[in-house]
Amino acid sequence: MKPNKMPLTKRILKTTGIVFLLAFVLSLIVPLPVYVEAPGMAAGLQKYIKIDGKKPKIDGQFMITSVYIWKVNGMGAIMAALNPTQDLLTASEANGGTTSENSARLNQVYMETAVNEAKAVAFKKANVPFERDFKGIYVMGIQDNSNFKKYLHLGDTVTKIDGKQLESAAKMQKYIRKHKVGAKLTLDYTHDDQQHQATAKTVGLLGLHDTAGIGIALTDNVDMKSDIHVIANMGDMGGPSGGLMFSLEMYDALAPINLANGRKIAGTGTIDAKGNVGEIGGIDKKILAAKNSGAQIFFAPYVKPTKKILKYEEKHMTNYQLAKATAKKYAPNLKVVPVKTFNEAVKYLETHR
User: Fold this and answer.
1) Which residues neighbour 305 within 8 Å (Cβ) at sequence distance 6 or greater?
2) What's the pLDDT tens digit per position in 194-209?
3) Residue 98 carries which DSSP code?
4) 173 contacts 123 by C-beta, under 8 angstroms
5) Most buried residue, 193, 219, 269, 317, by CB count within 10 Å?
């Protein structure tokens, strides 16, 4: 007798079912181009900042807040989608449109810049004499049409142009624009603490094809020098969002005051040399990090909400609006305080004891 053969339709269905099952299993375990953003930590800055080689003497804590971002597989994406305190991000959203390696390098530059701007704000407020020590110009972005793209890397520091010592990014741009598109320029720069030199032609600026540029986004690399030596070793943490909290910690430690006054104070926001506080990303996750660490006060950057601004804001809410809404739902005992400047934060802590 001949063995029974499975009908062709059933064999096709069985094979198709196996293929779909394998595809489903693989989708759960193979990493995807998807990231999860989740609440990170809120840590006292006394762990990271030293003044003249010692931990700052603070009665209380100023806490830097963070988010965790990591790449996930299908199962991780499903779990994050079901967790109301986590968000899914595209690779572009997670890494700012660049590679994860470049994003990490840029975030270290942003962190170093934030620390130095915070020093300037704290030194000035505490009446500590200091001077700006210009080191060169950070490379913050490289356009595809740049003739220097095969030489320079994100985070490099340009120190000279055509043998001339640089004084600022603005003066460098002014020098470049005196030349014609296609003119050769020579840059001295440091990469991984090694000195290099590169010569290449200028290109037309985007939208201004008759104006010469080198196709690179730049910002000043400066340090604040003082007889009081202040350093911040933040390890792997990066980004500019700790600026406000750095400045508050440093000011409390440098001035004859008790600003923290025994409180756990968290917050976030960029800082510039004039003390202006800027918005950041992931503030809802930072509220949860602050709550989990027992913070009592949370400083949130404030901008006036308008239709135009809200159109581009994260979740269509300003930092303060999103922080306030998150605290109301998850951390009702956390006082969210809106601030536009460093001085506003100081005034609040001095008048609310």
Assistant:
1) 313, 317, 318, 321
2) 999 999 999 998 766 7
3) S
4) no
5) 269
Q: Do residues 297 and 244 touch, judged by C-beta distance below 8 A?
A: no
The Cα 31–Cα 237 span in angstroms is: 24
What's this model's pTM, rounded to 2 decimal places?
Answer: 0.86
Q: Please tell me whether residue 21 adopts helix, strand or coil conformation.
A: helix
Distances (CA, A) of 273 to 114, 122, 344: 9, 9, 15
Give residue 289's identity as a one-letter amino acid code. A
The one-character DSSP state at 7 is P
The token duo for 73 is 């597989």
Joined tokens for residue 284? 């809802």
Q: Do 279 and 303 touch, CB atoms closer than 8 A?
A: yes
DSSP 8-state symbol, 127: T
User: Nearest CA to 254 among 82, 119, 104?
Assistant: 119
> Per residue in 93-117, pLDDT tens?
888 777 888 888 889 889 999 999 9
Half-sphere exposure of 353 (CA within 13 A, CB side): 6
Tell me 192's DSSP state. T
Statement: residue 142 has pLDDT above 50: yes
Look at residue 252 and give its three-state secondary structure. helix
Residue 220 tokens read as 């000043």
What is the C-alpha separation between 245 and 349, in angstroms, rounded?
Answer: 13
Helices (H) and strands (E) counted in the chain, each on its own, are: 10, 18
Q: Would the CA dihedral through 252, 256, 259, 263 be positive or negative?
A: positive
Give me the phi and psi of 225, to 5 degrees please.
Answer: -100, 135
Q: Strands of the chain (E only): list them.
A: 31-44, 49-51, 61-73, 87-90, 131-142, 157-161, 164-165, 184-191, 194-201, 203-205, 208-213, 216-225, 230-232, 264-267, 270-271, 277-278, 297-301, 335-339
Do 101 and 238 contact (CB within 8 A), yes or no?
no
